[in-house]
Amino acid sequence: MKKLMVFLMLPAPAFAASGPFFSLGNSDFVVLVSFITFVAVLVYLKVPGKITGMLDARAAGIKADLAEAKALREEARALLSSYDKKQKDVQEQSERIIAQAKTEAQAAANQAKDDLQDSIARRLKSAEEQIASAEAEAIRAVREQAIALAVQAAGDVLVKQMTAASTAATIDAAIKQVDARFH
Fold first, then answer.
1. Packing angle of the helix pair 47-161, 27-44 (nearest 10 deg)
2. Number of Cβ atoms within 10 Å of the Cβ of 30
3. CA dihedral 81, 82, 83, 89 (to 10 degrees)
């Protein structure tokens, strides 16, 4: 029962618009007049112009943001293209450097091989010259020794064959020979 009383106390929408339409007792008319007054106040205060201006400013800001984003995007593409080109150039340069290094390393290896062969040839020639020099020195030493032995043997033979008379005659002959050469 309490529910029924609460229901009856609530104003019913069907009873609100009772009476003639252009009467203040008619809620539809009052709402219409209030709405028209509200719209008139908004127009008087130039709210639609302000809202339009704000929307236009927002649209201009969005357009500017879009233009800036497009410009940044184009700049980013150009920068990416530049970096791609630089990366390609660096890659090509590194390949050229590697190829040049390999060529130089091969040339250095060949030069080292040639230098080693030249060094070996020089050392071999030097060793041969030292052997030839040692051989010549040995031959000279043997000749000197042979000459010394021959002179000593000749001296021994002469000593054994010489007598006092022949020694005096040899000395006299040597003195005459020296005298003839100096005068």
1. 50
2. 14
3. 110
Q: What pLDDT sits at residue 10?
A: 46
Q: H helices within the chain, ranges in order?
A: 2-9, 13-16, 27-44, 47-161, 164-182
CB atoms within 10 A of CB 162: 13
- Cβ atoms of 26 and 19 closer than 8 Å: yes
163's tokens: 């007598």
Can you give the pTM of this predicted structure? 0.39
pLDDT in tens, 37-53: 999 999 999 999 999 99
Residue matched to tokens 């609460």: 6
AA letter at 89 = D
Whose tokens are 């005096």? That residue is: 168
Tell me the two tokens of residue 84.
Answer: 């791609």
In the chain, the N- to C-terminal Cα span, in Å, equals: 188
Instruction: Say if residues 120 and 126 touch (Cβ distance below 8 Å).
Output: no
